[in-house]
Amino acid sequence: MILPRRRPARLVVVLAAGFCWGSPALAAGDAAHGAVIAKRWCAACHVVSADQQSANADAPPFADIAQRRPDDKQLRNFLADPHPKMPDMSLTRKEIEDIVAYIRRFDARPRPPAEPDEKDKEQPKRG
């Protein structure tokens, strides 16, 4: 019995999707989805939107967080491992990226260029 040759085509599609997913353009967060998450999980304590009427006085509004934490990496790390008063919501990496993108909407200051991670820095050439 001879099988149809569809598997290589599927493999190419899967590999291409994997490479695209890892690209910086697609790795950026979705601020609209971040707003949905924030309104569902964060609004009980934080002011997460301009139309929100009340929040916990001890929890900073997202606008303040955006001003005080200009580095996206700091925000990601904090959301991945929150302080004791904040519940650990076990957010996925994608959800964290989306929330960070949403918080960034509250900061109108120009964004400094992102510093590359250690693994992304150019390594010395051998030879």
TrEMBL record:
One of its GO terms (molecular function) is heme binding. Residues 29-107 form the Cytochrome c domain. Keywords: Heme, Iron, Metal-binding, Signal. The keyword Signal applies. Residues 107-127 are annotated as: Disordered. Residues 1-27 form the signal peptide. The keyword Transcription regulation does not apply. This is C-type cytochrome.
